Amino acid sequence: MTASNFGDLDGAEPALIPPGCPGRDPSAALAYPAAEPAQRLAAAFGLGGVLCPLSLSCSSGASAVAAAAELIRNGAARRVVVVGFDAISRFAWSGLCSLRTMTKEKVRPFDRNRSGTVFSEGAAAVVLENGDSLSARQIEPLAWLAGWATGNNGHHLTAPAPRGAGSLQVMRDALAMSGLDAASVTHINAHGTGTKANDTTETQAIFDLFGERGREIPVTSVKGSLGHTLGAAGTVELAVAVLTLREKLIPPTANHTDPDPECPLRVVTSPEAFEGHCVLSNSAGFGGCNAALLITDAPTVPMDATTGSVITVDGHASVSALGLDTEEIQTAAEEGESACFELSRFEFGDPPPEVGEVPEFAVTDFGVAPKPYLDPASRYLLGAVAAAAGDILKDNNLDSGRIGISVGTAWGCAETAELFFADYMRKGPRLVKPFLFPHTYSNTAISLAAMEWSLKGPHFNLTAPESAGALAFAQSVWALRRHAADMMVAAATDALSPIRLGVASSERTCGEAAAAALLRRDGTGAQLLGIGVARDMATAAKMAEKEAGVSGKDFRWYANPLAAAGLSGRECVELESMCGETAGAAFLLQLDLALSLEDQGAVVAVAVQDSCAAVAAIFRK
Known about the structure:
The chain is of the alpha/beta class. It is 32% helix and 20% strand.
């Protein structure tokens, strides 16, 4: 499991350089996808299990720990290595500077004279393991992960929500999961960036959760010492929280010398003995992303969550080269003719390659509020979610904190990243467009959807090559099964871009698509019978078939080519010949097609495999 804002963007920058500028190297695009570091890590250390790369801006590290814990809790892994990391590149530095959140002096978390943060480089690794597995190996853990939660504040791409509402939600949810109450928390490892807005709203969230006890709980922010390590921050701070428990010592908050009346916390400014048993670590990031982890020195009795609920798909839709609505898609699929033609949206190659392009549309056509700027990947996702669930999500009686969203994307908003870096190369770092930079993040599309429909519950953005949407679907199912949410939107998107086409295989036609499914507990739609997540397709299929209690040879599977190769003896339907290879959107696009084409009562399966994971799911329509 890897977590990062920017991945190996330093290595990929030559591919972002526009034609005609020195240093351009289109082949460097191989380093651009966020999954690349995870694949290199697995190869270097011989890790043979599921790879689950994730990107949720500065909450990435903590969110990856939560996602890894879900893998373990649901039997997809016994042990997971989680690595949060980020390095400063020209791209990242110019963009972060353009947002004007950095100080010209020191990071001063919660201090009256704080004037901003300093972004820095770093990495941290933690190993999570199933408690029963540890006991069998007679190993004592360093600490226990008692609770975790992710969410979105549904407010703004870069500004925190009033009173830190998103932070309050995830801290409260992590506590509820653990079975502990607020009085059990005896230390807070805060996000504490040293910016005016973040520190004030985080303080308000702490007081809204703990009441006047917020003045007594010792609080520290390591960013005063280390700077803001971006996607690594959550894992760095988890490691510090574990050391606090082990060494019984709270580290100081550097540069805090003048307490701010707006932040009346007990900020620790020199090493302090720790007598408690529970540490709460809080993380946040651009796009409204939030995560909280609860660490204890002994196992707890977790909240009792019934896992026997039926999960149903109560809405599904997609946009792809096959069309923009169910009728168009059904007709195209039944005709079986390719919807791939020469690229028309932008200039690339002579002659241009054959691709599967999404027909032009505006998000307002789907009832989505107009936006001043949208990357194609974000526009496609908003359209698909609106078509799948927009009418249901508009219900004002819904509890937004109980509705989450999990998204998959391999390439994120690559076209906007190219636009942004072109300004850097042609005009210099001071003239980049600050409004573009937040739209270059891999989590931009999921954040915009969360804001559009106020989806504040569990929140994951997976970035595997083709299994991203499948892993997002799995995380949605698991959130519903442990009652962390009442509804989940599982979605995926990937768009064509010059950087992606620059390294596309000549043997596979590139396509673009977005797809979404609305999942509920005990709804009225197609029923999920079983799901399997593994590194190889044969194992994932057997897991799904065992849970469903059916034989996969008795019904059709909708699968990408690599998955189909591992589904020996099963009838498979492949979409690539019709709409191209749609990267992270493949699984949910296939799900939409399967549920659109199959007869009522039919059993059908969807499967995707890539170099990171294999996921299989079986449904009864």
